[in-house]
Design a protein that fits this description.
- The chain has 319 residues and is an alpha/beta fold.
- It has a single domain, classed as NADP-dependent oxidoreductase domain (TIM Barrel), CATH 3.20.20.100.
- Helices cover 38% and strands 14% of the residues.
- The chain is built from 13 helices and twelve strands.
- The strands form three sheets. An eight-stranded parallel beta sheet has the order 3-4-5-6-9-10-11-12, covered by helices on one side.
- Helix 2 runs parallel beside helix 3 and helix 8 packs across helix 9.
- The site of one 1-butanol has 6 residues, from helix 2 and helix 3.
- The site of one 1-butanol has 3 residues, from loops.
- This is Aldose reductase.
- One of its GO terms (molecular function) is oxidoreductase activity.
- Belongs to the aldo/keto reductase family.
- Keywords: NADP, Nucleotide-binding, Oxidoreductase.
Length: 319
Amino acid sequence: MASAQAVGQGERGHFVLKSGHTIPAVGLGTWRAGSDTAHSVRTAIAEAGYRHVDTAAQYGVEKEVGRGLKAAMEGGINRKDLFVTSKLWCTELAPDRVRPALEKTLKDLQLDYLDLYLIHWPFRLKDGAHMPPEAGEVLEFDMEGVWREMEGLVKDGLVKDIGVCNYTVAKLNRLMRSANVPPAVCQMEMHPGWKNDRIFEACKKHGIHVTAYSPLGSSEKNLAHDPLVEKVANKLDKTPGQVLLRWALQRGTSVIPKSTRDERIKENIQVFGWEIPEEDFRALCGIKDEKRVLTGEELFVNKTHGPYKSATEVWDHED
Ligand code: NDP
Ligand code: 1BO
Ligand code: 1BO
């Protein structure tokens, strides 16, 4: 791992997936990264040592991500050393829409394969659906049919691994019953303010790697100012952001923090070669008042017409 050391990832800088492929432990998030995205992606890879970028068609920045990747590769980084994730949006959750959606994503990213393609949310939306959805805008989702198509993308070498996001234990069990290629990764909201232990345990049982999204608590519930996180950071002479990311790595999840500030992009990958001591790790696990930031309510709930009338229903009553 000498070369990985040289770019700052350290010797434990990746996790191994069920497929045998590796996923770098820290990736750059790109949701709401806006017009700075290409610059952030290039900075992350070429200057900070990231080898993993997380994006999605829904973020509206895939062309920008593609420009940033291209700039980094023109600077000498090999495609095979990068790990690029994208996601299939809810309007495309029908078997005949999967491959065209992936092809559009590849074109926008200027790539000929993805390392990981994820179902973004397990709910199908009608084209042009409102937020929140109006009556009839949340459609039936053929999970098995869509997964077959995802499997076809792996078989044809267009994506190396496939996975899901925002799944419940119930949905994961249903998928595991019919999948020929099991999901390699499950991406979920996770930080000390929402540990999400139930799905985490289910994933461990099935050997599915978990990536923690919104690992800093996102912009809505940024935990960098939490007094306990600050206290641990001061004690270890690290930043609160680094403590939150290191906490997630020590739990066994990869992380995809988003920043568009160069100094934070660099700070967020300096999370190797040191540890949060057990007592502080456990104290961080004990942060009270756990709550999701992303409830899915504004995307999928129609309180009058359903089919999901509350966030509780979105999460199959498992929260
Ligand atoms: P994060 O938890 O990564 O937090 C991002 C926020 O924290 C931004 O406001 C950022 O501001 C700030 N920030 C970044 N670094 C630091 C730091 N070191 N100290 C303090 N604040 C910091 O939130 P996201 O919700 O963006 O999640 C990360 C990524 O996960 C997304 O970008 C996306 O790629 C993925 N994701 C996937 C989802 C899914 O459904 N599969 C859902 C949500 C996210 P600034 O940019 O100004 O630095
Ligand atoms: C609306 C998409 C949530 C972030 O992945
Ligand atoms: C193509 C984006 C590079 C800017 O730093």
